[in-house]
Design a protein that fits this description.
elongated, 3-stranded antiparallel beta sheet, Ubiquitin-like (UB roll), 5% strand, Receptor-associated Protein, single chain, mainly alpha
Length: 398
């Protein structure tokens, strides 16, 4: 859900922003991680009114903006002129208005991080933090390059998972449509034939014919009920409470829960790596990425962050709170000895990504044949039960 926050920045100026967070405490924590002092935290009225509508808000193309800004800066164009150029060529009204306002704030002497942070609905806190850290070192181009690479790597993992689910989903849809066609069209016609024959039917065949006749006679009402059911389920899935319940259920599933943990750890290490290499202190980086983690891991991260603040090595603190694996722990220790923790965390994320890719490939190879077998058995069972009385009649005639 989205929260509207009024806060004071480091210069004591009043600023307003919106943050996506599961609750007001997390929204307050994210605002403080940005260097702000929250005064009021309220749930966004727009979010409350239409939060159930999917895709209700257009997303600002942050990656595209970063790529184009990087190209302009590398060509020697100043920052203000680059933003002006991007605003002039933009055809989307919302995006153009954001860029024009960023240009206005830059013209007032505000730093880029401040101008982007004023539009937190468009630019995520991690992006703003990376830009703010780059402003201290004068390495804006490097920060933009790191963020583009970061998002690209996240998209690769996400696309692998989505593409692996497309074929099973299509198989389920096609199998379901074929089953409905058999039950709603073919089976009722067989029932009329068997009624005219007046023969006794096996009880499984009778049950199948009853189901088929019910679907044929009340298909409109059954279809309407199915649409209502899907609409209710779709609405329920948009509710944070429902999503949290499903997430807890998946986390408790042995194989799936461990893979979800690996995926979240990979995203955690990659995000912290980007911030550390940009010059953000470790504790502050942990505070900023906490919102990316599942609640249990979020609490563990807070505990690890507290221990690091007390002077404990990062590898020990993360291991004590269950935020490492044996491989990650050894790599973190190497990173501490070499002083290149940011690069080492990126390597850990790559290792986890490869592990997730192998799991997705294994799961796809196993699940698709099993799903095809189940769909084939269901359709085959319907066909056999339809023809079973004919087989018995043929046997009695012989």
């Amino acid at each position: 859900m989205r929260f509207a926050i009024r806060a004071l920045d480091a210069a004591g100026s009043m600023t307003s922003l919106q943050i996506d967070a599961p609750d007001d405490l997390e929204a307050t924590r994210q605002a403080r991680a940005l260097g702000l002092t929250p005064l009021t935290v309220k749930r966004s009225a727009r979010d409350s009114a239409v939060s159930w509508l999917p895709g209700r808000q257009g997303r600002f193309p942050v990656v595209q903006f970063s790529q184009e800004l990087l190209a302009l800066l590398d060509s020697g164009i100043s920052l203000v002129e680059s933003i002006e150029t991007l605003a002039e060529k933009e055809s989307r009204g919302d995006t153009r208005r954001v860029l024009l306002d960023v240009r206005r704030l830059l013209g007032e002497g505000r730093p880029l991080s401040y101008a982007l942070g004023a539009h937190s609905a468009a630019f995520p806190p991690l992006y703003v933090a990376a830009i703010r850290a780059a402003e201290r070192t004068g390495a804006l181009s490097e920060a933009l390059t790191r963020y583009v690479a970061y998002q690209s790597q996240l998209d690769v993992v996400r696309k692998k998972v989505v593409s692996a689910l497309i074929y099973p989903a299509l198989l389920l849809v096609v199998g379901g449509l074929v089953t409905l066609f058999l039950l709603g069209y073919v089976v009722p016609r067989f029932s009329y034939i068997y009624e005219e024959m007046g023969t006794d039917l096996p009880w499984l065949s009778r049950a199948l014919l009853v189901v088929g006749r019910a679907i044929a006679d009340h298909g409109v009402w059954l279809g309407l009920g199915a649409l209502i059911l899907f609409a209710v389920l779709g609405y329920a899935l948009t509710r944070p409470a429902t999503r949290r319940m499903l997430e807890r259920l998946l986390w408790r599933t042995p194989a799936v829960g461990e893979r979800m943990r690996i995926y979240q750890l990979a995203r955690f290490y990659r995000t912290v790596s980007m911030l550390l290499r940009g010059g953000t202190p470790a504790v502050r980086a942990f505070d900023m990425v906490g919102g990316l983690l599942q609640p249990a891991l979020r609490e563990a991260l807070r505990g690890a962050s507290a221990r690091i603040s007390e002077g404990q090595p990062m590898s020990v603190a993360l291991a004590e709170h269950g935020l490492t694996t044996p491989v990650a722990l050894r790599m973190l220790k190497v990173g501490e000895r070499s002083g290149r923790m940011g690069d080492m965390m990126e390597r850990i994320a790559v290792f986890y990504d490869d592990e997730m890719a192998r799991f997705v490939e294994w799961f796809t190879r196993l699940f698709e044949p099993l799903l095809m077998t189940v769909v084939g058995l269901v359709i085959g069972l319907i066909v056999v039960l339809m023809y079973l009385p004919i087989f018995e009649l043929a046997g009695s005639v012989q």
